[in-house]
Design a protein that fits this description.
Growth Hormone, Chain: A, mainly alpha, 436 residues, 2 domains, globular, MFS_trans_sf
């Protein structure tokens, strides 16, 4: 039997799907880069526009409000127009938003650009999963989704030292113009390369596997209408426990990582921008480690996923307790350790939130449940970013910098909200603790 050459292989369904995966992964990478990018240019916006912390919080939160808001319509459009069209159109919207942000003469236009970016990048994750469900076998779906998430967190990683280096080299405006051009190129590639299913290119469907069907977010019985699914999910107490925990933990965590981490390191610890960007890499780096490792361990330990998730939340909360013990300024050598631990716990917790939500419902409801749970952290971030800016402004800036007291108030709020997040999900683990 002859082995097909490279050109022949890419023309088969099994080969072509990796080209599809590559395009979607790059676009999702850019989506996550935008999620964290304000922390790198916060000082630039303060100096150029005279923005205070509240204005920075409102600007940064615009992404998260719109990202969360478009998730339901993106899912419906993916089912009607097809994921290829959705990804292409929304990538173009993101490109317009990035360019508008780079051209912004003030915080108002910058906020509008950030909002358009949130809308645009909100149109890749759900249609991406829908495409994967047609191009990969059910037994491959979970693994490929995990790799897809890893690409996204590589975007978070790049929004630290690499983006800092780019901004120092080119300036913040030119850096965002460059990102806008890359986004436009990816929108064109999405239209040319993406394909909703193998049959659209004249290939046979990916061979189904024998045995009972695995959970599939897109194979929901027609007899169960949207209202029925919504009622079933929202009537389950466990759904609200997980969703509220995700809201109270995810909002403060994303706010710090995406808005205040670099200013905190430069204002309080006196690090240079490049050093602060390097320190920030420990957060997404830990996330990339924690998501697969803790998820793998949770599948194999006798305690169960629900008990593991409370353990990761306790460890993450303990890191914030360290900031409180040291009145907002732990020793500099502790920062990488704390950031790495927070990232590992955050990554593990996120994968477990999704896994626990799947456990609460039958297969035909998991797509609805996860779709409703997923925006919680982004909505929490959208609400907490302006509030954290308000807390900072109550203390006030000294020149372009904020004193440690301002950040300390934010850390107190982080700890309290995350403690609530731990408290609301703990009852889910009680039966498992009693059985162990």
């Amino acid at each position: 039997m002859t082995i097909p050459g490279r050109k022949a292989w890419i023309k088969t369904a099994l080969g072509y799907r990796w080209a599809i995966f590559g395009v979607l992964s790059v676009i999702y990478f850019l989506a996550c880069l935008h999620r964290i990018s304000p922390t790198v240019i916060a000082r630039d916006l303060v100096l150029e526009f005279g923005a205070d912390a509240t204005a920075l919080g409102v600007m940064a939160s615009a992404y998260f409000y719109l990202y969360a808001a478009v998730q339901p319509p993106v899912g419906m459009l993916s089912d009607t127009l097809g994921p290829r069209a959705v990804v292409t159109v929304f990538a173009i919207i993101a490109c317009i938003g990035v360019i508008l942000f780079g051209l912004a003469p003030g915080m108002g236009v910058a906020t509008a650009g950030r909002a358009l970016v949130g809308i645009g990048v909100g149109g890749v994750f759900i249609p991406g999963l829908k495409i994967f469900s047609r191009w990969f076998k059910r037994s491959e779906f979970t693994a490929i989704t995990g790799v897809f998430l890893a690409f996204g967190n590589a975007g978070n990683l790049s929004a630290s030292l690499p983006l800092t280096w780019l901004v120092v080299l080119l300036g913040w405006r030119t850096s965002f113009y460059a990102i806008g051009v890359i986004t436009l190129v990816m929108a064109a590639l999405a239209w040319v390369i993406l394909c909703d299913k193998p049959e659209d290119k004249g290939w046979a469907p990916i061979a189904p596997e024998p045995g009972p069907a695995a959970d599939d977010a897109f194979d929901i019985p027609a007899k169960a209408g949207a209202l029925t699914r919504l009622k079933r999910v929202t009537a389950h107490p466990g759904f609200w426990m997980v969703t509220l925990s995700y809201f109270f933990f995810g909002g403060p965590a994303l706010t710090f990582q995406g808005l205040w981490a670099v200013p905190y390191l430069t204002d309080v610890h006196g690090f240079t921008r490049m050093t602060a960007g390097a320190m920030l890499m420990f957060l997404p780096g830990g996330f990339i480690i924690g998501a697969p490792v803790i998820g793998f361990l949770a599948d194999r330990v006798a305690a169960g996923r629900k008990r593991v998730i409370t353990t990761t939340l306790v460890l993450g909360l303990g890191c914030w307790a360290v900031f409180l013990v040291f009145a907002g300024k732990p020793p500099g050598w502790m920062i990488p350790v704390l950031f790495l631990t927070m990232g590992i716990c955050g990554g593990g917790t996120l994968s477990l939130y999704f896994a626990v939500t799947k456990e609460l419902f039958p297969a035909w409801l998991t797509g609805t449940a996860i779709g409703l749970m997923n925006p919680a952290a982004f909505l929490g971030t959208a609400l907490f970013q302006p509030f954290s800016g308000y807390l900072m402004d109550r203390v006030g800036a000294v020149g372009p910098a904020y004193p440690v007291e301002g950040y300390f108030h934010v850390f107190i709020a982080n700890f309290v909200l995350m403690a609530v997040g731990l408290a609301v999900v703990t009852p889910l683990a009680v039966p498992e603790i009693k059985r162990s």
